[in-house]
Amino acid sequence: MTIRPIITAPDPRLKVRSETIAVVDDSVRQLLDDMYETMAAAPGIGLAAIQIGQPRSAIVVCLNAPEDEERRPYYLVNPEVVWRSDEEILHDEGCLSLPDQFAEVVRPAEVRVRYLDYEGEEQELHAAELLARCILHEMDHLQGVLFVDHISVIKRNIILRKLVKARRQQASA
Fold first, then answer.
1. Is 138 designated active site?
2. Residue 101 and residue 107: Cα distance in Å, rounded?
3. In whole angstroms, what is the distance from residue 137 CA to residue 133 CA?
């Protein structure tokens, strides 16, 4: 397993739509393993393949802390929402690709998602609250959508300018 660099906004690669994965084979499992290691090292609770430069329809989500022995990651390949609740919740979101930036985003309180698991078996998962939010956030990445695309243009531009400024300061250091 390899920890890979995480792409940060406003990198145009984050706006690329991910491609469907035809079959879950050893190369896809290696990608999933690398995504999990990268996410855990960051540390984060979710990561989409595009965030490590792979425009493939795969996400990893794990809400447990890295030191938790009961850590249970979800590996979702080609995820699709098959149901979403009418109830919506406003909550702060952040992203490994937009470090140290947060904004309130409205998302459904619950979803049901169909996907292929780590072994390539079709599964369906009912997710609520933080798990639902995290899955939807990562699924947005697969479509080239960032959480800041759900907020006002003014707030989005402020966040993106902060990221550009931080990148410039890092480059000159």
1. yes
2. 18
3. 6
How far apart are alpha carbons 164 and 35 in whole angstroms? 25
Q: Is 135 exposed, middle or buried (0-12, 13-18, 19+ CB in 10 A)?
A: buried
Residue 130 included in any domain: yes
Between CA 7 and CA 161 the distance in angstroms is 16
Of 105, 110, 107, 106, which is closest to residue 85 (Cα–Cα)? 110
Report how far residue 97's alpha carbon sits from residue 110's, in angstroms, rounded to the nearest whole number: 24
Residue 3 lies in a domain: no
In 65-171 the beta strands, taken as DSSP E runs, fall at 74-84, 88-95, 98-108, 110-116, 122-128
Side-chain-side CA neighbours of residue 49 (13 Å)? 26
- Sign of the CA dihedral running 12, 55, 39, 90: positive
- Which among 5, 10, 22, 6 has a CA at the least distance from the CA of 57? 22
CATH number of the domain at 38, please. Answer: 3.90.45.10
Catalytic, out of 104, 121, 129, 138 = 138
pLDDT tens readout for residues 41-99: 999 999 999 999 999 999 999 998 666 667 789 999 999 999 999 999 999 999 999 99
Q: Is 1 part of any domain?
A: no
